[in-house]
Amino acid sequence: MIYDNCTYQRVGSGVAQSFFSKLKATSHKLNIQVLIHKSKSIDLICHQQTISNSKNKNLFTNIKHIFFDLDRTLWDFKANSRATLSEVYTAFNLQEKGIRSAMDFIKTYEKINERMWDLYRRGELSKEKLRYGRFQKTLLLFGIKNELIGKEIGQYYIKHSPYKVGLFDHSHEILTFLKKNYQLHVITNGFEEVQHVKLRESKLLEYFDKIITSEAANAKKPDPKIFEYAESDTGAQKENCLIIGDDLEADIKGGIASGWKVIHFDPHREFDKVENVLTIHHLQELEKHL
Fold first, then answer.
1. Is residue 146 part of a domain?
2. Which domain holds residue 171?
3. What's the chain's average pLDDT?
4. How many domains does the chain divide into?
5. What is the pTM assigned to this prediction?
6. Is 68 helix (H, G, I), strand (E, B) or coil?
7. Contact 181, 157 (CB under 8 A)
8. What is the pLDDT of residues 40-54, one digit of tens each?
9. Torsion of CA 118, 77, 289, 170, to 10 degrees
10. Torsion over CA of 112, 281, 77 and 206, rounded to 10 degrees?
11. CA 144, CA 138: separation in Å to the nearest integer?
12. Whole-number pLDDT of residue 131
């Protein structure tokens, strides 16, 4: 019963209790007028969303440059990666090698990949070892001791996954909306040659003025050096910068530590709300705040 820009609504008395329960759960900062008619319908005049929107817009009044993370923020990394890994499972006959199902392979790989990416981000693992080692370690867990196959799978994955074009809903629409008023950029820890292919194939390149990669900056998020590099490369001042990303450590903590404004994108509602940080679950929500 609550709409984004709710100013007036008439409802039957039978749903009034449910309506007020939702309001109570949503916020205590409300300005509501209630008019009860002889017909037992109820007029509810609610100013909550107007107040909320105004407050959030004020947080970003000085923003001129918006930096988007790419993977898991615009480009649907999980869906695209899993599609490629399913192809790997078939192309390399992994069932015949003892891996029961594609999903067993995928979930095992994802756990290893996450751990190894953390090491890579901290500078404790080279790009080369990450690229191939994650597949070699996955195969080892299934009793497949063949480094050559692991390397071949790594090459296949890097070659094919960037050509997947799955994006989060309304990516193009929100970028079109924001480009009217802001300079848009990408800031990413992903492999440079891979990220450019993803942007080109997904038809996202046209929206962005600069593509900031960790390899070009010689520093990975959350290291302040990549944020400083981004400011220098774009001519931005830190007080005019906003980063939108999914990673609490790399994007949100890194951005805050560098003096940038931040918006956390949590499409699958996986994380607890971070105090004093705006969290969105759909890209379209950005229209209300920027």
1. yes
2. 60-75+167-289
3. 85
4. 3
5. 0.80
6. strand
7. no
8. 333 333 333 333 444
9. 180
10. -150
11. 9
12. 95
The verdict on 184 and 83 lying in the same domain is no
pLDDT at residue 57, rounded to an integer: 62
Same domain, 138 and 223: no
DSSP summary character for residue 281 = S
Cα 6 from Cα 283, distance rounded (Å): 20
| CATH number for the domain harbouring residue 183 | 3.40.50.1000
2 assigned to some structural domain? no
Taking only the tens place, the pLDDT of each residue in 262-284 is: 999 999 999 998 889 999 999 99
pLDDT value for 11: 41
Place of tokens 């409300």: 30
Helix (H, G, I), strand (E, B) or coil at 241: strand
Residues 81 and 68 occupy one common structural domain: no
Distances in Å between the alpha carbon of 114 and those of 47, 128, 157?
44, 16, 16
Length of the chain counted residue by residue: 290
**Tokens linked to 97:** 């090698």
- Residue 273: predicted pLDDT: 86
What is the structure's pLDDT at 56? 60
Q: CB of 214 within 8 A of CB of 226?
A: yes
Does residue 125 contact residue 137 with C-beta atoms inside 8 Å?
Answer: no
**Structural contact between residues 191 and 157, judged by C-beta atoms closer than 8 angstroms:** no
